[in-house]
Amino acid sequence: MVFCHFMMGIVAGRTSAADYDGDMSRAKSYGIDAFALNIGTDDFTDKQLGYAYQSAAKNGMKVFISFDFNWFKTSQAAEVGAKIKQFGGQPAQLKVGDKVFISSFSGDGLDLSAVRSAAGMPLFIAPNFKAANAANADAAFNWIAWPSNGANKAPTDAVNVTVADGDQAYMKALGGKPYMAQAIDDRIYTVHDILIGDPTAASPWFFTHYGPEVSYSKNWVFPADLLWFDRWTELLQLAPQYIEMITWNDYGESHYIGPLSSPHNDDGNSKWVNDMPHNGWLDMAKPFISAYKAGSKTVNQHITQDQLIYWYRPSLQSANCDSTDNTMKAVSNPTENFFQGRPNGAETLSDSVFVVALL
């Protein structure tokens, strides 16, 4: 099955289930089976979850809750279970057999037995725990879909942990339990499609650039280049039971494959997101999704129209934006995720145009 991560924290302004219909119908048309609804502890969460579940049922989609432990505490097993109990019986809830499917972002240390008890219904728990902590879960989700230094930052000459390295670590730790690979598109690129003749997982890039204007200041980039294509190609060989694309609408980290028109609040991301559509990456993924579901090892037989999909950064790697860059200012809450000035990893970027031909 193929899922896509959907950020609920930026959709507070939606006023009805109809506001989700465009997302649901578009996702389904590309072969996406379910949205992973990422939630925090906002006061609007229940209302928006209700709308999303209603829209999913109307549009033939499934959804499941992904608890974000940037906001939840691992001591809140009872609250997590209660939220599952509240929504787990909805018609659009994704299930594995009779078990309610749930996931998370982070959450190592959460008492899964207490969650099951509080939910009061059979659960299939596929959290984003570290590989070493996944033994008590039913499956596990590996979020890290970019080459890194092993500490959630850009790789260095000394340390380069590949996405495939992460696959192997999780599959070894799970000992045969289902593995949910990630397909990610994280870039500050503009993406274009050319239709020739007629008008995970995979990750291209990750970019975030928040300064003191928010409480979660963070400023780094992962290199990716052709990772979106390379990762999908790799996934066809890996054939995991589940693939989750990251994300539909996380504009703040630049890994969105949904349209910019999807209703959302601006938390400051518009400085690097406006006029930067990523629709082409979803178009590129469509034949790969079809190939994955068919059990094919190559995409060739699933390409239904000739396309060139290309992307690039409109600014050079050497661009100097210091005079207008908000990250040049000091922040009151410095963490390992904030780097003053140029983003950590900026030196790994390539001034290139990346092209994928689907012929």
Task: Produce the secondary structure layout.
Blueprint: E1 2-7, H1 21-29, E2 34-39, H2 45-59, E3 62-68, H3 77-87, E4 95-96, E5 99-105, H4 112-119, E6 123-126, E7 140-141, H5 163-174, E8 179-184, E9 190-195, E10 206-210, E11 218-222, H6 227-238, E12 242-246, H7 270-273, H8 279-294, E13 307-312, E14 353-358
Parallel strand pairs: 1-2, 1-12, 2-3, 3-5, 5-6, 7-8, 8-12
Antiparallel strand pairs: 4-5, 9-13, 10-11, 13-14
* pLDDT averaged residue by residue: 91
**Largest sheet composition:** 9 strands, mixed
Q: How many strand units?
A: 14
The number of helices is 8
Share of β-strand residues:
15-25%
Name the poorly predicted regions: 194-201
End-to-end Cα distance, whole Å, is 25 Å
Overall 3D form: globular
Report the helical percentage.
Answer: 10-25%
What would you call the structural class? Answer: alpha/beta
Report the radius of gyration as a whole number of Å.
20 Å
List SSEs in N-to-C order.
EHEHEHEEHEEHEEEEHEHHEE
Notes on the protein architecture:
This protein has 359 residues and is α/β, with parallel strands linked by helices. The protein is 24% helix and 20% strand. The protein is built from eight helices and 14 strands. The chain has helices at 21-29, 45-59, 77-87, 112-119, 163-174, 227-238, 270-273, 279-294; strands at 2-7, 34-39, 62-68, 95-96, 99-105, 123-126, 140-141, 179-184, 190-195, 206-210, 218-222, 242-246, 307-312, 353-358. The strands form three sheets. Strands 1, 2, 3, 4, 5, 6, 7, 8 and 12 form a nine-stranded mixed sheet that branches. It has a three-stranded antiparallel sheet with strand order 9-13-14, with helices on one face. A two-stranded antiparallel ribbon has the order 10-11. Helix 4 (112-119) links the parallel strand 5 (99-105) and strand 6 (123-126). Helix 1 packs across helix 2, helix 3 (77-87) runs parallel beside helix 4 (112-119) and helix 6 (227-238) runs parallel beside helix 8 (279-294). The longest helix is centred in the last third of the chain and has 16 residues, at 279-294. The protein is globular and about 55 Å long. The two termini are 25 Å apart.
